[in-house]
């Protein structure tokens, strides 16, 4: 088994299911000890932790809603208190509320912005206090942050475009510290949030070159590479895992 992340500590926000859970398991498989945050679904979080611990790595789950700045900061402090350091932050917590823009309520817009943009800003700022040279900040953006191939995702696409520019701007700012900042942009991935069998799946699948949805492990594989030592000269990059949706 590759141990490229041996001795590293990673925190994955929204790590109890979907892409986040796959990332947590993959980073642990590569040798990292991991912390995950979750909003609700303590059972799902506990099962991810159990699976990781059974492989011989250390792992903790911390209840922290991405919209609650104090809770997000506390989760980072708890991770450092538990493991002694923080090397990798994966800003995975995110949400979409697919519907036509003109039917979207202000509350729905606020929620998408709070989780997808504000939550990322807060977690990153708190994590940077603890990061040293060799640190990795990784966003889970979206292919629609660069090119929108299907309707119904206006506020979501706007937030993911913000994450793209945040990544590029921050990479410029902290590059001298030896910390890289990159944005992994999944296309349609089969998860609870965007099931491959859902109503919104038909146009998304059709927009890909491979004519299929991606698997969570296919996203986790790229995140693991970006988190590892071989990606040390990649920063400020937007890396799509989208089956050719943006080709």
What does this structure look like?
The protein is α/β, with parallel strands linked by helices and 247 residues long. It has a single domain, classed as Rossmann fold. It is 41% helix and 14% strand. The protein has seven helices and seven strands. It has helices at 18-29, 42-53, 69-83, 106-128, 154-174, 201-207, 216-227; strands at 9-12, 33-38, 59-63, 88-91, 136-140, 180-186, 238-241. The chain has a seven-stranded parallel β-sheet, sandwiched between helices. Helix 1 (18-29) runs parallel beside helix 2, helix 3 (69-83) runs parallel beside helix 4 (106-128) and helix 4 (106-128) runs parallel beside helix 5 (154-174). It is globular and about 45 Å long. The protein starts with 8 loop residues before the first strand and ends in a 6-residue tail after the last strand.
What characteristics describe this protein?
globular, 247 residues, 7 helices, 7-stranded parallel beta sheet, alpha/beta, single chain, Rossmann fold
The strands making up the biggest β-sheet line up spatially as 3-2-1-4-5-6-7
**Name of the CATH superfamily:** NAD(P)-binding Rossmann-like Domain
Helix and strand sequence: EHEHEHEHEHEHHE
State the CATH class.
Alpha Beta
Multimer state: single chain
- Distance from N terminus to C terminus (CA atoms, Å) equals 33 Å
**Low-confidence stretches at least 5 residues in length (pLDDT < 50)?**
none
Overall number of strands: 7
What is the CATH architecture annotation?
A: 3-Layer(aba) Sandwich
- Percent in helix: 40-55%
């Amino acid at each position: 088994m590759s141990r490229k992340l041996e001795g590293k500590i990673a925190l994955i926000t929204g790590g109890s299911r979907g892409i986040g859970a796959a990332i947590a398991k993959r980073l642990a498989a590569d040798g990292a000890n991991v912390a995950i945050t979750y909003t609700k679904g303590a059972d799902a979080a506990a099962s991810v932790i159990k699976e990781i611990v059974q492989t011989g790595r250390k792992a903790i789950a911390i209840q922290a809603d991405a919209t609650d700045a104090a809770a997000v900061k506390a989760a980072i402090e708890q991770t450092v208190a538990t493991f002694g350091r923080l090397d990798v932050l994966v800003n995975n917590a995110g949400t979409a509320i697919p519907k036509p823009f003109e039917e979207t309520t202000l509350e729905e817009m606020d929620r998408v912005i709070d989780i997808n943009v504000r939550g990322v800003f807060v977690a990153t700022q708190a994590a940077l206090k603890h990061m040293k040279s060799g640190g990795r900040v990784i966003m889970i953006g979206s292919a629609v942050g660069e090119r929108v191939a299907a309707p119904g995702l206006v506020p979501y696409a706007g937030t993911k475009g913000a994450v793209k520019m945040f990544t590029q701007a921050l990479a410029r700012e902290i590059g001298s510290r030896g910390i890289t900042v990159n944005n992994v942009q999944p296309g349609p991935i089969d998860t609870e949030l965007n099931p491959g069998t859902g109503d919104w799946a038909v146009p998304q699948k059709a927009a890909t070159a491979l004519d299929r949805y991606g698997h969570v492990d296919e996203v986790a594989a790229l995140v693991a590479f970006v988190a590892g030592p071989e990606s040390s000269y990649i920063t400020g990059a937007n890396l799509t895992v989208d089956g050719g949706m943006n080709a």
